[in-house]
Amino acid sequence: MSIIDNTQEHSTRIFLVEDHASFRQALAFMFEREGEFAVVGQAGSLAEAHAFLRRSPDDFDIVVVDLALPDGDGFGLIAELSSRPAVMTLVLSASLEPARFARAVEAGASGVLHKSAPINEIVDAVRRLRSGEALLTPAETVEMLRMVSRRRQEEYEARRAIEKLTPREKQVLAALGEGLDSRDIAEKLHITIETERTHMVNILGKLDVHSRLQALVFAARHGLVEIR
Amino acid sequence: MLESGPFVPMAAQADPMQEAALGGISPLPKPPDNRPEGPADAGNPAHGRSRPRILMANEPRAYREGIAAVISQLRPTVEVEMVEPNGLDDSIRRYVPDMVICSKATETLKVRVRVWVELYPENGAVSVANIGGRRVEYTEIQLPDLLSIVDKAGELSQAN
Q1: Mean pLDDT to the nearest integer, B79-93
Q2: Would you say A40 and A6 are in contact if contact means Cβ atoms under 8 Å apart?
């Protein structure tokens, strides 16, 4: 973690949270050369970010946060920062998942940018935020919040479906995740092929999917099986 | 930073950015005001080979542009060219760089370029450098490390 005493009057004070140090340092350099910005702190992890926040709770205006940090994702940090009315958060992420950007907005991010953006666009985004300009239109914000809501509903329904599975059905799914076919699953679980097929029909019904492959994808997506 | 193979070890380095920053001193010079943005006009034959050439083909773009801007400003005698990663091999043949920074080292790169850095491959934390035959692994490469490699590429270029 770095705490840098280069605050100037009228500067926009920036706190950078990014684990790729050489990029973070280059980004700091880019901001500093603009003259109107002062990078007051840098952190490479959530732990370093929280340490900075404890030591300098009110010393920054804008936080630029990477979502994927070595000790966790940045959503909690964004939510924590959103409780400070004077602070704005710009998310900078390498993720291509719109749902992650949407979650960041829900957590309170004022803007989200992909790291494939030109560096000047990132600098300009901070400038626009500081001047009170919104980076996201209301329609974009609403769409992102809807996306989070849909995703949350899907996760809820998936959890409900998983709860309906019996321990035996979970064993069948686990065996499916090992790449076994019906005969091998039956042999592994000491059941007949007919019983295995009955379990599978029940699994498909409970998960609301239509094939073994879809069941496998569902199970992998929700952590029921680990594909190695 | 880890070494492997028959390469010469480099001394482990502390985080000079952080150390200096904690002391209230920026480890990198302040960017000069009113300096033109962007890399040098690489590829101009008038430059000859008196200036080391660096080709940047790493991704994402923000990394490429940010680091290129720093190198251009802090090492003004170096030519910096930026290309998209999928144009790396062609650019190596055309531009004949003394150093390459990329996200994935190609066979063409390994055969034709003496100094290169595979920066955050697969968006991971570890970076790998080849410095005139020495392989160096960085678990958390810093900007001063990259500048040091740029300087080394310049020295190797001048030695030839």
Answers
A1: 96
A2: yes
